[in-house]
Specification:
The complex is a heterodimer of chains A (866) and B (105).
Chain A (H helix, E strand, L loop, with lengths): L7 H10 L2 H13 L4 H15 L4 H23 L1 H30 L10 E7 L5 E2 L3 H10 L3 E10 L2 E2 L6 E2 L2 E4 L3 H5 L5 E2 L15 E3 L1 H8 L9 E4 L2 E8 L14 E4 L17 E6 L5 H18 L8 E6 H6 L3 H32 L1 H9 L4 H37 L14 H20 L10 H6 L7 H37 L9 E7 L8 H16 L4 E7 L10 E6 L12 E7 L3 H5 L3 E4 L4 H5 L5 E5 H7 L9 E4 L7 E7 L14 E5 L9 E8 L7 H11 L5 E6 H8 L1 H35 L1 H9 L4 H34 L11 H27 L11
Parallel strand pairs in A: 6-11, 8-10, 17-22, 19-21
Antiparallel strand pairs in A: 1-2, 1-12, 1-13, 3-6, 3-12, 4-5, 7-10, 8-11, 9-10, 14-23, 14-24, 15-23, 16-17, 16-20, 18-21, 19-22, 20-21
Helix pairs in contact in A: 1-2, 1-3, 4-13, 5-11, 5-13, 5-14, 6-9, 11-14, 11-16, 11-23, 13-14, 16-23, 16-25, 16-26, 17-21, 23-25, 23-26, 25-26
Chain B lengths: L3 H13 L5 H12 L5 H13 L3 E5 L12 E5 L1 H18 L10
Antiparallel strand pairs in B: 1-2
Classes of the chains: A alpha+beta (866), B mainly alpha (105).
């Protein structure tokens, strides 16, 4: 026999479950046919399923299960409130957890779908403050040549070409990459071929590889596209490959086209300080991240020592691709994970509570059934069947909740989140979560009953409500304390996030976002090869839009504040040369038309704005700087008349004519507020993508159609994209926090409701059980005040204990939220006090109803029971 | 009326003839139907046919190729043969006049 050890398990299974003569026949046949491996397991499982020896006990169990199930259905139908509460609780808990997991798993946890994706790294230059910086081409070449731990490495740069096939021009998201980029990433084209090294040189033909989606959408999935040239911004480029279906380039999510980089170290834009490229590397098998990092640190220090004038960055950074691409979204998703975890615990506690309360009410039923001969295992089976039925219904409800929640969640996520396309309802995860929830519910809910079934028949039959065993009350009290604690943690989290978002939107942006329409205009193709043609196009667009009724003013700018672009230039002052490149301040570059500042209502705090004449003057170079940049370079001095240059020593100095207010560019929470403004004809090159900002009299989005038509009339071949009101651009910049806030608020509300319902349930049950005692107290002279104290005091004690525990928990939880907070500390006392007060008030309100019911107890009733 | 699988298994047992146990019966079915059935499915059908009295089974001899396990051999009973004949006759009657490859020969 070839594999004598492994097959023994399937054979043992067959011998265990099949009647012996059948087992002999089947095993003999399998040996004779020499069936092994997966096939053997399949044969074994099918044989066991079809041919297993059913004992009479098994047959009996099946039929009693069915009768239990029928009874369970009847009981649940008869208690619609309990059933609805239980199914809803389970549905929300299971559905929300499954939805969050379905989103977080492909994005954060599951390995990227590349060959040995764990070996793919991103390489950055590391700044003194620890931040990451893109890298120059020559540096990438040196890293690649000198590092021995890399199997291969590639450079990549952003590329947003316009595809002008057919009559509809389209802006695409793409990348320019080294020839071994896909090899380094660990994927191959499905059709055609990969880039070749001999194509990755200046002057070589510019070949492109396209995504499967683009191939289907624009080329009808025609395989003959390989070798065909397509028009990209007016240049014909041959398509050499099509990537596989479902390939998602996480370095630039949504990429549809890749072009060869084609740099040489002699190119002016390939220098060491031309840090506009990113780098990925594939580690050799078995190389640990630490080793690669320490080697690259040495390499970087050696290169920096050889070219001290080019490197302000003290180190290089090697980090796994997966954690790099999700770094930005990790805090929000982890915070959500924590929130959903708390929700889950609360839901389980609530379910257990519901079941306990129900069991108390059913003591009598169980006592009667026991007296009639039902055994303890039989009763336990009945309870398990009921729990399973509720669990199954809850699972279905969870499926519906998750199915509805996931698309809503995905809509809230930033569209550039990597692996967004891989998010779908994870049914396996849902099943596992449902199983965990149902089992834990059953354990918490049923264990306290153990050992007190048969012994209490007499009490049960007597009908006296004295069955609130101390053990059970203790469990229920514990559950309430836990629910209150977790609800408080969620409420504090939601409160902190809410205060952060409010603080954030209160920040002075530096411009007026209301009634402002923004859109991207393009000027690509042979008509716009000269800068003059581009500028003339911008002028025509501005004139046409300004002439529209309802438009106040129009400006052109290369990038919007808070629009998500990063375009920083080093700024050097003529009177204060800075020898250390690390200490040169960087400013956000705004290349503008003269009317941009007035359209955005960015204030001029000193000096004056550009004149229309300066806009066209290409000899006398002028510039405006933000207050932050002026103060950084000339603290305590006026910046007017000083001269600065941007982008290296070969660039001209420009005279500062004015100082503007600070504008938040990288985010409302950004601390970098240095920026400069240059008229577009005075910058050394034109951009073929610009943002148009339009100040309108009324609702800006209502003007979008008219603006679009006006621009189309000038050149119908140019795509107009990213049309949005500036208010929405600002709101989108707070997207991650808003998402966290929305979900935290939903979870917190659900948690508070569950906790309050829990307290109410316990007290209401308690008052009902103690009717006789309360009546007795009233008869013996207890005042309404005493009785109120008795009932409310019990609830308040539970609430206070829960809230104190919750405060400690909140201190721990909010630490994980720190990255999402703005303007409030994680232990913000106002939020803590408010959340505690809200929850305490809600808990006391929940106590009042049972308390009032206790007051209404008629003393004579106390003696009438039985 | 026999089920499809029952017909196929009965026919296979008849085709194998003497000493029709699991392996040759299964091979005959896979060869002629080109369906990837498991042994378990074949045995299950056989035990259902046995319960209906259409086949009977007896223990065969153990062989070394079978790791010393006995075979379980099946033979079609008279009732089984009759049932098969009536099923096939029904099919043929239903097919009369239709060009479906089941015309009376």
């Amino acid at each position: 026999m070839s594999a004598p050890v492994l097959p023994s398990l399937p054979f043992r299974l067959l011998e265990r479950f099949l009647p012996s003569s059948t087992a002999d026949a089947v095993i003999g046949d399998l040996i004779e046919r020499q069936v092994t491996g997966v096939r053997l397991w399949r044969e074994t499982l099918v044989a066991v399923w079809h041919l297993r020896d059913r004992t009479p006990h098994e047959v009996e169990l099946m039929s009693s299960f069915l009768s239990d199930l029928r009874l369970a259905v009847r009981l649940l139908v008869r208690a619609p409130t309990f059933t609805a509460a239980a199914v809803l609780t389970l549905g929300i808990a299971i559905g929300a957890t499954a939805a969050i997991f379905s989103v977080a798993n492909p994005v954060l946890i599951r390995p990227l779908p590349y060959r040995h994706a764990d070996r793919v790294m991103v390489v950055w230059e590391k700044e003194r403050d620890g931040s990451r910086s893109t890298v120059g081409f020559t540096t990438i070449r040196d890293y690649t040549d000198r590092a021995t731990t890399f199997e291969s490495a590639a450079a990549l740069g952003d590329w947003q070409p316009t595809l002008s096939e057919g009559n509809e021009p389209e802006r695409l998201q793409g990348l320019r990459v080294s020839s071994n980029y896909f090899h380094t990433l660990g994927v191959q084209p499905a059709l055609g071929r990969d880039f070749r090294a001999d194509e990755d040189v200046p002057g070589a033909q510019r070949v492109v590889i396209i995504s499967h989606a683009l191939w289907q959408r624009r080329f009808g999935g025609d395989p003959s596209v390989i070798g065909r040239s397509v028009s990209i911004g007016g240049t014909m480029m041959p398509v050499v490959g099509v990537m596989p279906e479902g390939f998602d380039d996480v370095t630039a999510p949504g990429s549809q086209i890749w072009r060869i980089l084609g740099y040489a170290v002699t190119d002016p834009y390939a220098c060491r300080t031309c840090r506009h490229l990113r780098m990925i590397a594939r580690l050799k098998p078995g190389v640990a991240l630490e080793r690669a990092q320490s080697e690259l640190t040495k390499v970087h220090k050696a290169i920096a020592a050889e070219h001290p004038e080019d490197y302000g960055s003290p180190d290089a950074l090697v980090a796994p691709l997966q954690s790099e691409v999700t770094r930005q979204y990790r805090p929000a998703l982890l915070a959500l994970g924590a929130a959903v975890g708390l929700m889950l615990v609360i839901a389980i506690a609530n379910m257990a509570n519901l079941q306990l309360a129900r069991l108390v009410r059913r003591e009598e039923e169980f006592a009667i059934r026991t007296a009639l001969g039902a055994t303890t295992p039989r009763l336990t089976r009945q309870l398990l069947t009921e729990a399973l039925l509720i669990g199954a219904l809850g699972g279905v409800a969870g499926l519906v909740v998750a199915w509805l929640a996931i698309p809503a969640l995905v809509r809230q996520l930033p569209p550039l989140l990597p692996r967004l396309g891989a998010i779908h309802l994870d049914v396996a995860a849902l099943a596992v979560i449902a199983a965990i929830v149902v089992v834990s519910t059953m354990v918490v809910g049923l264990v306290p009953r153990r050992g007190r079934r048969v012994s209490n028949i007499a009490d049960g039959l007597r009908g006296g409500r004295r069955l609130t065993g101390t053990r059970q009350s203790a469990v229920r009290a514990g559950l309430i304390v836990a629910e209150m604690a977790f609800a408080l943690m969620l409420l504090v989290g939601a409160g902190l996030l809410a205060r952060s978002v409010i603080r954030l939107l209160d920040v002075d942006k530096g411009f007026d976002a209301s009634n402002l329409l923004t859109l991207e205009i393009n000027s690509v193709g042979p008509r716009y090869e000269t800068d003059q043609a581009v500028f003339a196009y911008h002028d025509k667009v501005r004139d046409a839009v300004r002439a529209l009724p309802g438009v106040v003013s129009v400006g052109v700018v290369n990038q919007l504040p808070l629009g998500g672009n990063i375009d920083l230039y080093g700024v050097g002052a003529q009177d204060k040369p800075e020898p250390d490149p690390a200490k040169v301040p960087s400013g956000d570059r705004y290349v503008v038309s003269a009317d941009y500042l007035s359209t955005m209502r960015i204030p001029i705090v000193e000096g004056r704005p550009f004149t229309p004449a300066e806009e066209r003057d290409t000899v006398n170079m002028v510039v405006l700087v933000s207050q932050a940049l002026a103060t950084r370079l000339w603290p305590g001095e006026s910046a007017i008349g000083k001269r600065i240059r941007m982008g290296g020593p070969e660039r001209p100095f420009r005279a500062i004519i004015g100082v503007t207010g600070n504008v938040h560019h990288q985010g409302l929470d950004a601390t970098q507020l240095m920026s400069f403004y240059v008229p577009e004809r005075q910058w050394f090159s034109s951009d073929n993508q610009e943002m148009l900002v339009v100040r309108t009299r009324g609702n800006p989005t209502a003007m979008a159609g008219a603006v679009r038509r006006a621009i189309r009339q000038i050149d119908p071949a140019q795509p107009i994209v990213k049309v949005a009101a500036m208010d929405d651009v600002v709101a989108a910049s707070t997207g991650q926090r808003r998402l966290a806030l929305t979900l935290f608020t939903c979870f917190a509300l659900a948690a508070v409701l569950l906790a309050v319902a829990g307290i109410y349930g316990v007290l209401a049950g308690n008052v009902a059980e103690r009717t006789r005692e309360i009546g007795l107290r009233a008869a013996l002279g207890a005042t309404p005040r005493n009785i109120l104290q008795l009932v409310v005091g019990q609830g308040a004690r539970l609430a206070v204990v829960g809230l104190s525990v919750g405060l400690f928990g909140a201190f721990a939880l909010t630490r994980s939220l720190r990255a999402l907070l703005f303007g409030v500390g994680p232990n913000d006392p106002v939020t803590m006090v408010m959340a505690t007060a809200v929850l305490l008030a809600a808990a006391l309100a929940a106590c009042l109803v049972p308390a009032v019911r206790a007051l209404r107890v008629d003393p004579s009733q106390a003696f009438r029971v039985d | 009326m026999l089920g499809e699988l029952e017909q196929i298994v009965l026919l296979a047992v008849l085709r194998v003839g003497d000493a029709a146990y699991g392996v040759p019966v299964h091979e005959e079915i896979v060869r002629l139907t080109r369906r990837d059935l498991t042994l378990g499915t074949v045995y299950k059908t056989l035990s259902r046919l046995e319960a209906k009295g259409f086949v009977r089974s007896y223990e065969g001899d153990p062989t070394p190729q079978r790791g010393g396990r006995r075979t379980r051999c099946f033979a079609v009973t008279t009732a089984g043969r009759k049932s098969l004949e009536s099923t096939l006759a029904t099919l043929r009657r239903m097919a009369v006049g239709l060009d479906v490859g089941l015309e009376p020969t």
